[in-house]
Amino acid sequence: MKILIIEDEAEMSRNMQTTMEKENYLVEVVSSYKEALSKIGIYDYDCILLDISLPDGNGLELLKILKDKGLSDAVIIVSAKDSLDDRILGLNLGADDYLPKPFHMAELNARVKAILRRRKFDGSNVLEFSNLKIDIDHHQVKIDGKELELNRKEFDVLLYLSINKNRLVSKTALAEHVWGDNIDQADSFEFIYSQIKNLRKKLTTAKALPEIKAVYGIGYKLISQ
Asked: Which of 25, 63, 131, 193 has its CA 20 to 30 A from that of 34?
């Protein structure tokens, strides 16, 4: 899961990032309206944590841009502005939740999980596809009830393909979602090929019915045999 934190308070930003990374989310952080506008114009995120009081602009304008473009990124507003008008405006503009500062990081974590469950997994903690079962909260994969050992990136690749099962996922989209904007520094997609190769081998050995199909030159699709 890929999270964008838009927050100009350094200590708050660090605490939020640490909390999200402990849950094994891929986290990117920006501290200004300009940086945030650049990010949401290029990349997709599963959840955006948005402070509406930024030094160079209003976060609600970013929310409006997201929704006007029809982007599906979930948004939780995290703000010291706790007026009823701000809450109503943010929710009317399309925010999924509004968390006033100060808040406990445990509550932030719970709200992120709740939104991801609702948006990505039909309200469940578990995603199932044929004899494959993925427990999102515990980062656990089982085939026919037997646990499959995966490293973090293999898990992230499988989860993203499972969320998009039976749909073609481009190499670029997969790379951005699992590795973040650091892929801009990569010369090739060799690192993706390596993870896919290892993941396929483990799925085959475990007799998984879902398989990763390569569409030459484009990307990958998780289908069931």
From this structure: 25
